[in-house]
Specification:
Elements lengths: L1 H20 L55 E2 L5 E2 L11 E4 L4 E5 L2 E2 L4 E8 L3 E8 L12 E2 L2 E5 L8 E6 L2
Parallel strand pairs: 2-10, 7-10
Antiparallel strand pairs: 1-3, 3-4, 4-9, 5-8, 6-7
Length: 173
């Protein structure tokens, strides 16, 4: 009798699993304006409703708006290593710098972790050098944060193009 109950239960589970496997479950995708396959009023990342449509998941862009930039913007030019003074940075801190927008924007690889966010400020802009202070915001008291380190690319605006000036990187509290 127990054997019969086990066989019947196993058969019922297999029947449900095979019935569910045959379902055509739509895949989430970002909604595009006026897409007839998107659910009306659904939030971004809505579900396609057309069963005949083959939809592959789309990967987020490398630098989605409002998120830390993890890659250097296209068209940026690396600053030669002999024009970057990173002596004041802690050991193992990145010291990669690029220029963009005719040399008026510095894109700098920074370091942040947990709930912190990297910031950069052009503290001094002299005729032969530019001093950039790198800092990190800290989490609110009592907030739990992850123990990870990220290396985002932050942008710092200059009053004039960098040209042949040296970039001096420093960290501040």
């Amino acid at each position: 009798m127990r054997y019969l109950a086990k066989v019947a239960g196993t058969g019922a589970i297999l029947l449900m699993a095979t019935a569910c496997a045959g379902q055509n479950v739509p895949i989430s995708q970002p909604a595009s304006g006026g897409d007839p396959g998107a659910v009306s009023g659904a939030p971004s990342g809505s579900v396609s409703t057309s069963p005949s449509e083959s939809v592959l998941p789309t990967w987020p862009s490398a630098n989605p708006p409002g998120k830390p930039r993890l890659t250097v913007p296209e068209g940026s030019t690396p600053v030669p290593p002999n024009k970057v003074d990173a002596a004041a940075l802690p050991a193992n801190y990145p010291h990669e710098v690029w220029t963009a927008n005719g040399g008026t924007i510095l894109n700098i690889r920074a370091q942040e972790g947990g709930c912190g966010h990297a910031l950069g400020e052009a503290a001094e802009q002299a005729g032969d050098h530019v001093v950039v202070n790198l800092s990190e915001t800290k989490a609110q008291t009592g907030q739990m944060c992850t123990m990870d380190i990220r290396y985002p690319v932050i942008s710092v605006a200059l009053a004039a193009p960098l040209d042949q000036r040296t970039v001096i990187l420093k960290t501040t509290k």
